[in-house]
Design brief:
Layout (H helix, E strand, L loop, with lengths): L1 H10 L2 H28 L16 H6 L3 H32 L6 H9 L6 H11 L6 H7 L16 H26 L3 H9 L4 H12 L1 H16 L3 H6 L11 H11 L3 H32 L2
Helix pairs in contact: 2-14, 4-8, 4-11, 6-8, 8-11, 11-14, 13-14
Length: about 300
């Protein structure tokens, strides 16, 4: 009897499975196939064109001894930590504010979310103008009488990555706010009633009750933020193009420049493989928490 039910399960939703075949095939051929191809060629001496002339780990040794790559990793660390902390904190505070059913909530939510509709190129150009010392924030403050005021992060190699961070937060925090707001709206109203009856301060209810209950929402937001951090490219190109000098280089720009400007495919493949590894370091724990945890707790 059990054997008879197996074919029935396979035939269940057969039309949907057939319809999904082209997408699955495309994903396997293009994504998985190209990923394997890239990893294999990262161990070769490919220059202008790919070639199977294996050189072992030479490309990776050169990669990690290149100052530009090391600076790009350092910048990614600063940008990543800043994005994670400020996006989650500011996004949650905004979500908690909107969850109070304030007046004109839809208007406020639209205004905050609007920057996310812009491309990174547009965002980068806008903030390049805003942070320009000749006609941006510095110029406006000095015109008010504060002649010694200095605010030119995009022209200071020591803090240029924080200028990029400001633009990234302006664009992406609204989207994180919407994700966290959906999690807050899923909290049972009885929890708030019980906390009020017990006289528990609202901040303690958020910290010790609501936030732990929103763990899946926070994990989803964390994955989205991390994926955006690792592949950040166009925002940097639009704002600084990696400058001053190489002070605002990021890994994605290093990959592009290696492959298309330096015509060193092997080096670009090695750098992109390291970026893929960093993505997997984030995705594997997330997949385990989301799916493994559900399976064990069923």
């Amino acid at each position: 009897m059990a054997g008879a039910t197996k074919p029935v399960r396979i035939l269940r939703n057969l039309n949907a499975k057939i319809a999904a075949l082209p997408m699955i095939t495309t994903a396997l051929v293009i994504f998985v196939g190209c990923t394997i191809w890239t990893i294999v060629h990262s161990f070769t001496n490919s220059r202008l064109l790919p070639k199977l002339e294996f050189v072992g780990f030479a490309q990776y040794e050169r990669l990690w001894s290149t100052r530009r790559w090391l600076i790009s990793i350092e910048n990614l660390a600063y940008f990543g930590i800043g994005s994670l902390v400020f996006s989650l904190v500011i996004g949650f505070l905004l979500a908690a504010l909107l969850d109070q059913k304030i007046r004109f909530e839809n208007t406020v939510r639209t205004i905050i979310l609007y920057p996310f509709a812009l491309s990174f190129i547009v965002t980068g150009l806008v903030w390049q103008w805003i942070l320009n010392p000749e006609f941006g924030i510095q110029h406006i403050v000095r015109s008010l009488g504060f002649e010694n005021f200095v605010f030119d992060p995009l022209y200071n190699p020591d803090i240029v990555i924080f200028g990029v961070l400001i633009a990234g937060l302006w664009q992406g925090t609204g989207f994180i706010m919407v994700i966290l707001l959906s999690g807050l709206r899923g909290i049972d109203g009885e929890i708030w009633k019980a906390s009020r009856i017990d006289g528990i301060p609202k901040w303690k209810t958020y910290l010790f009750v609501v936030i732990p209950m929103m763990r899946p929402t926070f994990v989803t937001a964390l994955v989205i933020i991390t994926a955006g951090i690792i592949k950040v490219y166009d925002l940097v190109v639009a704002q600084t193009n990696g400058g001053p000098g190489i002070a605002s280089e990021v890994p994605a720009k290093y990959v592009y420049d290696s492959m298309f400007r330096s015509q060193n495919l092997g080096q670009g493949f090695a750098a992109s493989t390291m970026m893929l590894l960093s993505v997997l370091i984030v995705l594997i724990p997330w997949a385990y928490l989301e799916f493994g945890g559900r399976k064990n707790g069923k």
